[in-house]
Amino acid sequence: xxxxxxVVIGSSAAGVSAAFxxxxxxxxxxxxxVGSDPHEPYERPPLSKSLLSTGDTSLKPIFPAQSYLDDxxxxxxxxxxxxxxTARQTVELADGRILAAGHVLLATGVGARRLPxxxxxxxxxxxxxxxxxxxxxxxxxxxGGPLLVxxxxxxxxxxxxxxxxxxLDVTVVEQAALPLVGVAGRPIAELVRQLHEDRGVxxxxxTTVEALVGTNEVEAAILSDGSRRPAATVVVGxxxxxxVELAEAAGIEVDRYGxxxxxxxxxTNPWVSAAGDVxxxxxxxxxxxxxxxxxxxxxxxxxxxxxxxxxxxxEFDALPYAWSDQFGLTFQIFGRPxxxxxxxxxxxxxxxxxxxxxxxxxxxxxxxxxxxxxEVAAARRxxxxxxxxxxARLLDAEVDLRRLPKQLAADLS
Length: 413
Fold this sequence. Notes:
Layout: E1 6-9, H1 13-24, E2 31-35, H2 45-54, H3 65-70, E3 73-77, E4 81-85, E5 90-93, E6 98-100, E7 103-106, E8 110-112, E9 125-126, H4 131-143, E10 147-150, H5 154-165, E11 170-174, H6 181-184, H7 186-197, E12 202-205, E13 209-213, E14 220-223, E15 228-230, E16 233-236, E17 240-242, H8 245-249, E18 259-260, E19 272-274, E20 279-280, H9 295-309, E21 321-326, E22 329-334, E23 342-345, E24 354-360, E25 363-370, H10 373-385, H11 391-395, H12 404-412
Parallel strand pairs: 1-2, 1-7, 2-3, 7-19, 9-16, 10-11, 10-16, 11-12, 18-20
Antiparallel strand pairs: 4-5, 5-6, 8-17, 13-14, 14-15, 21-22, 22-25, 23-24, 24-25
Helix pairs in contact: 1-9, 2-4, 2-5
């Protein structure tokens, strides 16, 4: 297929995956990837999962550098995009350059949500979204604690674990009653809390931070319960905001999740597609359209939208997968739990090893496990098979999940 230049805005997983997929789909025109991050495209998960634990600041490339040359992909890095001119079909870069584009793919991702409280702009109040953030935070952890983490989601817990691995005093302040309770529910959240507390992490739950105080650098946090918590470093991990500014300014529809796309990644302007974390997409795992913020999803969604953008219609409907490393243990999640699901926690669960299932219509809709890779892989097959599964068999730790799909299929024959 011959077409004028494809411009991909965003040099993280979804963007570069889309560009390579365009080539695999047969597009032989120019492809330019524009990224505001100055580094060659790198994997983001290690920033919180390993870099802070080990202090190794090297970045893991998403694809080898030679791959961009082999596929004739142009990289423009360290330069932002000022605007999209939909009438002239051009992309204006922050340095004044104008790129003509036959099509634009937005993979602008999400940014860290900031706290609208006094003291939020003090030195050593940090977030973690990119390599620059990770480098600055690694330096702070080397200087010692105490570290105060605001937010008990996966990123906050990964940071807490990494800091404890380095011997720092760590406190996590979470507005909810338990860490991860909104994602995983109370039974798993209780186990996660115990995992961290056993290793020295302190939690202040059901509480918010009302102010950060200090002369130039942060020195303490004032909490909603009136207490004061000392902090040499504060990391804010209270969610993300989709980077929809370019789309919004171009008159493209956005909603509270991100840039509205159809199942092929097309936006309300046929000149523009969107992929990855910034996309508000329909997906079989979601009960309504929404954003799926996982590395594996970004790669796969980017590839599907990239192929679709050059004429090879490809729908992303793979089961969402995510993982989190904490204290040398790995959480794995397939699917997305829903509020109406029945939750089943397998017998024998401990804070260091468990597996839980979310059931809908007597089928497994989602699974989360800790230090249970084989069982999680087996549960994935149960989800994809769509087989009816008695909850009692999932609850029973003596049932071999790897054999269960065949047993269930045999029961039907």
